[in-house]
Amino acid sequence: xxxxxxxxxxxxxxxxxxxxSGLSSSFTADDRADAMTPVFSITLAGPEDLEEGDVVAASxxxxxxxxxxxxxxxxxxxxxxPTYVRFQLHGTTFVHAAAPDPxxxxxxxxxxxxxxxxxxxxxxxxxxxxxxxxxxAWDEARPHPS
Amino acid sequence: MPGPMPYLLxxxxxxxxxxxxxxxxxxxxxxxQQLRSGHPLADLLGLDSTNLGAPPVTVAGIVTDPGWxxxxxxxxxxxxxxxxxLGMSNxxxxxxxxxxxxxxxxxxxxxxxxxxxxxxATICAIEVSLNLPPGVAGDPVPAPSALERQWPIDVxxxxxxxxxxxxxxxxQSGSGPTEGHVTLLIxxxxxxxxxxxxxxxxxxxxxxxxxxxxxxxxxxxxDARLFTQGMWVIGHGDYEKTVVCSTEGTRHAQVMAPGIxxxxxxxNTVVCVSPAEWEGxxxxxxxxxxx
Lengths: 146, 291
What we know:
The complex is a heterodimer of chains A (146) and B (291). Chain A has 146 residues and is of the alpha+beta class. Chain A is 27% helix and 27% strand.
């Protein structure tokens, strides 16, 4: 039996609070006048003009909720101290909402943390660091001068 | 570069050759004038030194000579410097900067005038080493025999990014003409295709000639201090990597962040390694420029 519309409403609200509460030690709401309104929205970024109702998908036990959160980097994130940079964090949360009690639901989050890093000025244009075994495997696989 | 760059700090044959050129006061003074006047950098680096290596020789589709050293000839080395380091193109028949190209050369995520930076840094290093004030093209320079100061110049490369910057550092140790030295540290963005490894020791295997050279050692021999050059790395021998993913399911508000952790494989042991030259280290007597 599909998840009911009433449950989906609860899921959406819980996803918002999950993101905001779960990341509150790193990011807080960007409530400045020129920030995205509302601060948290259920949406997908792209060329299409999609409404909230278009982007939430549900099966018999899972609900997928894509979202955007206008935030400020106000606390340590991946060991990087606050930069107070404002940006939009994007992600999609898959909620296993089969249990009757919402407190028993499980959240599988796919958050664009890489873009968050770039926004706060962390570059990944570095040489990859390999373990000794990984380096040997790379050296074996790479093209060598003949 | 003549080989891979598994270590964070790099010198290797190319920079040893540059250092040996700079050791000659006449070459250094001439190089200063050429750098100031815009002479192509690639022509000043000793890339034609015959002890750098040679490419394979193929006759009728059969490799008759596998080559040696960096397996390259001067033309390929010049292409490497101009194209990969300086972001130039010779599509028009002459090497020219491509200021609009992104990235510049093989520097990941970076655009800038690397030729101008490297040129200015080398000029600064030479001026300091010879006790000359900042100058421009056409300024007179003293005759090599009249130089009152001739400090040696060390050149090192750290390839990790994100910017292309050069650092010129010096230290005077006395009042004599050679009592001091200059260090030119080239800090670049990451280069395409050159990973690091956390492991700094190497297996010394008599059947594997790559590491049987006396130039690789861990620990270095007790008399290494008597060598004319040295470059050691001191640290834990290797590390174990742990990756934390953020997509594992959790309950409400228990958001996981991704992470990477490096833990010393043996935190109770610190090793000293003298890397092989072909992996970024130096020969005990350096590598001279050989016409």
